[in-house]
Amino acid sequence: MSHCTKFNFTYSDEEAIVRAFRKMDVQTSSELITEYKNDFQKKILSHFGYMGSKQMRAICGCKNGINMFMCKIEENRYELVCEHPNITPQIQDQMNNLGVEFQQAYVEVAVDAVVKRLENSGTPTQVTKMEHKYTINFGPSLEYQVVVSYDDNVVKEEVFGVKGNFCTALTEDIENILSHPEAELVSEFKTEIDMVVEDQVLQVISLEF
């Protein structure tokens, strides 16, 4: 292993959020939404012009009759909120499942960004998808590897077989999309990072990063 980095998961990239919705076949719009503290405020007072306790910009979509709002709660930080007019245990389960599905789609957008750069360099690439885990194999014999896994709100990225500091550039897209810009990145580096990159394949690939 060249290096391993862990950081807290955050929805921080608006373009990636839109792409994640598209992966779920959900059309999106950007709107200003209002937060109400209770149903009385929402259903009654809103008709008299009450603007609620908070307004925020959101990327909105709808799937299976459930409204999905990716709310901008602060700079570079979004939060997913699902809404339905009739909350039942079944609807709540569907909302929870949509949250899991969206997170998976969002992580996949970050993986796609790395794969696109690798393919642009003409490098054979293969992606293996498992629950909460993506493995990217690349190289003439698919001998190099990037593994992205997530558990709750922690993301772990691992790079195998890559020498030199190129291994950190290889995962920058993942970090930029899945973490907050001010997030703490906890990294463990192996001796490979200090080695000179003599592999011409890696030298060509690094030009894309």
Write structural notes for this entry.
By secondary structure, this protein is α+β, with helices and mostly antiparallel strands. 31% of the residues lie in helices and 33% in strands. The strands form 2 sheets. The chain has a 6-stranded antiparallel beta sheet, covered by helices on one side. The chain has a 4-stranded antiparallel beta sheet with strand order 2-3-4-5. Helix 3 (89-120) packs antiparallel against helix 5. The radius of gyration is 20 Å and the shape is elongated. It starts with a strand and ends with a helix. The model is unreliable at 40-52 (pLDDT under 50).
pLDDT < 50 stretches: 40-52
The pLDDT mean sits at 86
Residues in helix, %: 25-40%
Radius of gyration: 20 Å
**Tally of DSSP helical segments:** 6
Order of helices and strands: EHEHEEEHEEEEHHEH
- Going by helix content, strand content and strand pairing, the class is alpha+beta
Estimate what percentage of residues fall within beta strands: 25-35%
Largest sheet: 6 strands, antiparallel
Quaternary organisation of the protein chains = single chain
Order the strands across the largest sheet as they lie in space: 6-7-8-9-1-10
Q: How many strand units?
A: 10
Described by the principal axes of the CA atoms, the overall outline is: elongated
Distance between the termini: 20 Å
